[in-house]
Specification:
This protein is an alpha+beta fold and 115 residues long. Helices cover 37% and strands 36% of the residues. Strand 5, helix 3 (81-100) and strand 6 form a beta-alpha-beta unit.
């Protein structure tokens, strides 16, 4: 749960909201094949909910009022990985800051597989 204050009061946003927002932005980027499971929690969710659930491969945390986003992705073979990662970071940062007015401290992109 991410909490922040604005002139109208306290605002709370769930991690699921951020994960769905970030996941949609990442999957629309060219070169991303899919989101990768990032541990036992994602593996169990994949078994229960199916191959691609909205928050698979996404972790959003707060650090001193700014967001830290961890992404685990699978990319398409033969494409420039640095260009894909650059595209993802720009798109995710814009999507999150535009939708929530919160600042993004950093985006960590982990390429787990090439398909």
């Amino acid at each position: 749960m991410i909490k922040f204050y604005n002139p109208l009061g306290k605002v709370c946003m769930t991690s699921a909201y951020f994960a769905e927002l970030v996941g949609a932005a990442v999957q629309s980027c060219y070169g991303v094949s899919a989101m990768a499971a990032q541990g036992a929690r994602d593996n169990v969710k994949t078994l229960v909910l199916g191959q691609n659930h909205p928050d698979q491969g996404v972790r959003v945390t707060e650090d001193q009022g700014r967001l830290v986003i961890d992404l685990h992705i699978k990319v398409i073979y033969g494409l420039n990985i640095a260009a894909i990662v650059s595209s993802i970071t720009h798109k995710v940062k814009y999507a999150v800051e535009d939708a929530t007015t919160l600042k993004v401290a950093r985006i960590n992109v982990y390429v787990d597989d090439i398909v």
